[in-house]
Design brief:
seven-stranded mixed sheet; 887 residues; disordered N terminus; 27% helix; alpha+beta
Length: 887
């Protein structure tokens, strides 16, 4: 096989001839022996189905290939070890097996972002080859080397089980024919994702492309005295080293506060270990990374400020010129001290949550390509991003370059997971600057270790609460003080702590509240958006205290919640009266018997806003363009990141027009004025569908008037939706409406006699199940993430340095750790949203950790106040490979 390109000798090492068979063809050539098999497959042979999620850590399974017929990881295997072997990637398996993978994973909903799936599929094929009738347990055991952050594994196991059945002669289920709202339409581009044919940013190549790599700060707080690129520039293949001195425009950027430097300049202090000092640009990724290591930085090392409480002291060093207190959010209603004094029972506690790493399996990557912006030859850029807000990326890149915004086009490349962690720019600004300065395309992809250092985390929040109730158990008052570790930069942290305050009561009636929530800068990693956005931290505290009050009153967890949940007409924590119907009570009733009949069960309810709200507009924008008689392109301003947004928008268009789903394509870019802001706050389905619905109805009107698609080629139909009536948190208005709508849930964790979580039940009011398969996958994946939050995940930071720097050290649940998950779907439509839908992206893990904590307390009598719950049997089962049940 003749490779399209070669990277031989890129690190200067003597070459070594290696002979092997690749996808049935003989290969014999010289390679740098320091390179891995994964690098050679991807870079030299253009085989992109093996993905790089953690190389060379060998922890995620995304790089799995067949070596001599057995599924093996390619990222930790040096190319010399391939001598004499037969290597087969998913591109090289027989066509009937490729079709089997594509159909089974798509039909079962066994993929979301898709990044991990090609490796899983290879593992599944290998298993079925050796065991044609695998049990679900066999499949789970086969997947032990693999991670998925999206699905919760349930539907991946379904897919491999279906592959085996079809291999044995059983019939593959037919695909959904109609494709409208409420059907189980196959995921858009699902087959491409399953086979690894979809090109994520790191899979993309363009002629003349070079590579960028960052030089990160060595210290969380240090004065940068001198940056010396001499050794880096002397390395053959290096084109340029870019620093703060090269930034022509605005160097400090950010989604809300402009406090995050593109590069830290000489004479400035670093604020965390992910700060970027410089970028090296070189012919290959290996050379660029080596060059970045050779950039010498002289520092005056300073003591980092890592405790948010100490950071608020008057004599604390200022991390930013305005000081260390980013924001204060308050909610006050009634006289809390009087109400607590009059309460029959009062419980008080301090609850603490941890730093959480998003651990999306696709590391950050960006490709910037110089283009001509207009007919006059004005230089421009075409930037391929995986970010959650292409228009925010565009604005910030244009500001960095000091260019008119029209010179920058940003195109979304559907990403390999985000969960909030790709709202802030990571390497987009630096990569775009390098391409603009150098005049050739530049791609930068972070290593897993760099990714963990650079992007924002979920906020650790310390919550001190006092809660009172009357003698019957009715809640009377809540006093709460919250301090969130903002880390080095603002990101959206002020909004996260605002949301934590607004959800401090959980979905319960509290006539009197006094809540204060602070976001505080430190020299720890920045914290920003992550699934739940402050609501899950607040839920851990309030749900735990509800259980303690219930015990005082003599009620069980279910009865206490049924007595106090919000019902139509009640006032939520933010002051908003919930005048529209919602199904929280139905979710509670759905789990009643399971909770009351279990020996060791914990229960928790959840509420999560849908939409930004709190005085900010929620916009939906979309277009449908008839590009051919058999092709309509759907554009939305929101990001597809595995949640199924494009599929939902297509189903909306099908529902409204009656046209087949197969003629619709979906994309997101900045060529059209579709700026909706970030894809966040569980709002993509509601706002994206609303805009698509409006555009589709306009198209339908022309079709009903007798026009055909052939007549309409070139026509574009626009849809816009705006919710602009929400009130700011704490605004003194008569009838505050802080959010468009909400998601609601009740969840139950059931433990076995060995203390492990044996079953998890998630009952959710979704308004309308737009696509039941995708919906179930979202909830199962949320539960998986919530169980990790409760039991095992902890990004350990000491003195501003990450002590958890490898993927394997950060314990994400694998398939064999997962309990049985039962999803119960309640549909109580919201009359104000398209088809009554509510967002479910975040609510799925809001109640999870407190439900687990309550079950553990039933099991061993310990009331736990710190996440994760590592002193429990349920946690030890996950974190200790030698765990055995007691007795």
């Amino acid at each position: 096989m003749t490779p399209p390109s070669a990277q031989a000798g890129s690190t200067g090492t003597a070459l070594q001839r290696v002979t092997f068979t690749l996808n049935g063809e003989a290969v014999s050539r010289e390679f740098d022996p320091g390179r891995t098999l994964l690098e050679v497959l991807r870079e030299d042979f253009g085989l992109i189905s093996p993905k790089n999620g953690c190389a060379p850590q060998g922890a995620c399974g995304c790089c799995t290939v067949l070596i001599d017929g057995k599924a093996k990881l390619s990222c930790a295997l040096k190319i010399a070890k391939a001598e004499g072997r037969s290597i087969v990637t998913l591109e090289g398996v027989p066509e009937e097996d490729r079709a089997l993978v594509a159909e089974c994973f798509t039909r079962t909903g066994g993929l979301q972002c898709g990044f991990c799936i090609p490796g899983m599929a290879v593992r599944g094929l290998s298993l079925i080859e050796s065991n044609p009738t695998p049990s679900r347990e066999d499949i789970v055991n086969a997947l032990k080397q693999h991670l998925c952050r999206c699905t919760g594994y349930v539907k991946i196991i379904d897919a491999i089980e279906l592959m085996a059945k079809v291999k044995r002669g059983e019939r593959l289920p037919d695909p959904e024919a109609a494709g409208g709202v409420g059907t189980r339409l196959d995921r858009f581009r699902g087959r491409q994702f399953a086979l690894g044919d979809w090109k994520y940013v790191d899979d993309m190549t363009v002629p003349g492309m070079k590579f960028g790599a960052p030089r990160l700060s060595d210290h969380p707080r240090a004065l940068v005295k001198k940056i010396d690129a001499t050794r880096a520039l002397a390395l053959p293949g290096v084109h340029r080293v870019v620093t703060a001195a090269d930034v022509p425009g605005r160097r400090y950027n950010g989604l809300i506060e402009k406090d995050w430097p593109l590069f830290v300049a000489e004479g400035e202090e670093t604020r965390y270990v992910g700060d970027m000092i410089a970028f090296a640009v070189a012919d290959t990724q290996q050379i660029a990374r080596r060059a970045a290591e050779l950039i010498d930085v002289q520092y005056d090392v300073l003591e980092p400020l890592t405790d948010p409480t100490k950071a608020m002291l008057p004599d604390a060093p200022k991390i930013h010129p305005k000081g260390n207190l980013l924001s204060v959010s308050t909610i006050q209603r009634g006289d809390v001290e009087k109400a607590l004094a009059e309460a029959a029972f009062v419980e008080e506690g301090v609850y603490t949550t941890q730093f959480i790493e998003h651990m999306f399996l696709e590391p950050e990557s960006c490709l910037a390509v110089p283009v001509t912006a207009d007919g006059n030859g004005t230089p421009g850029l075409h930037v391929y991003t995986q970010g959650q807000g292409v228009f925010d990326d565009r604005r910030q890149i244009a500001a960095i370059l000091d260019w008119d915004i029209a010179r920058v086009k940003v195109q979304l490349v559907s990403n390999g997971g985000a969960f909030g962690g790709k709202e802030d720019m990571s390497v987009q600004g630096q990569t775009a600057l390098c391409a603009a300065l150098c005049g050739f395309p530049v791609k930068c992809t972070l290593t897993r270790e760099q990714s963990m250092r650079v992007h924002p985390k979920r906020h650790p929040i310390k919550m001190h609460m006092r809660v009172g109730c009357d003698a019957t158990g009715r809640l009377t008052a809540l006093w709460a003080r919250m301090i969130g570790d903002k880390g080095a930069y603002a990101s959206v942290g002020a909004k996260v702590l605002e949301r934590a305050a607004g959800h401090a009561t959980g979905p319960y009636k509290f006539p009197v509240v006094d809540i204060e929530s602070k976001a505080v800068y430190t020299n720890n990693p920045p914290c920003g958006a992550m699934r739940g956005f402050g609501a899950n931290q607040a839920a851990f505290a309030i749900e735990s205290l509800l259980n303690r009050l219930a015990a005082r009153v003599g009620l069980d967890g279910w009865d206490m919640r049924y007595l106090n949940i919000l019902r139509q007409g009640d006032c939520f924590c933010t002051g908003q009266r919930l005048t529209k119907p919602f199904g929280l009570e139905k979710t509670l009733l759905a789990v009643k018997d399971a909770y009351k009949n279990a020996k060791y069960a914990g229960i928790a309810c959840g509420i999560k806003n849908v939409g930004l709200g709190n005085g900010m507009p929620d916009l939906g924008k979309g277009t449908l363009k008839v590009e051919a008689p058999d092709r309509i392109v759907l554009r939305t301003g929101f990001t597809e990141m595995g949640q199924g947004l494009f599929t939902i928008c297509i189903q909306t268009a099908v529902e409204e027009t009656g046209l087949p789903a197969s003629i619709f394509q979906a994309t997101t870019d900045t060529e059209h004025d579709l700026d909706c802001g970030q894809t966040t706050a569980s709002r993509g389905t509601v706002l994206g569908a609303a805009a698509t619905q409006a555009a589709a109805r306009a198209l339908k009107a022309d079709l009903d008037a007798g026009k055909t698609l052939a007549d309409l080629v070139g026509r574009e139909y626009r849809g816009d939706y705006a919710c602009t009536y929400t009130s700011k948190l704490g605004a003194e208005v008569e009838d505050p409406k802080t959010h468009l709508t909400y998601g609601f849930a009740t969840q139950v964790a059931i433990l076995g006699d060995d203390g492990r979580v044996a079953k998890f039940i998630a009952a959710h009011d979704v308004g309308k199940a737009m696509n039941p398969t995708l919906l179930e996958g979202q909830i199962e994946g949320s539960v998986h993430m919530g169980l990790g939050y409760a039991l095992s995940e902890d990004l350990v930071v000491e003195d501003g340095h990450l002590k958890t720097s490898r993927m394997r050290d950060y314990v994400v649940l694998r398939a064999h750790h997962m309990p049985e998950v039962e999803t119960i779907i309640i549909e109580e439509p919201d009359p104000e949203t398209p088809y009554g839908a509510r967002g479910v992206g975040e609510i799925g893990l809001v109640p999870t950790a407190p439900a687990v904590a309550a079950a553990l307390e039933k099991f061993d009598g310990v009331h736990r106040t710190v996440l994760p719950l590592t002193d429990s049997e349920a946690s030890r089962f996950i974190t200790d490979p030698a765990w055995k049940p007691k007795g």
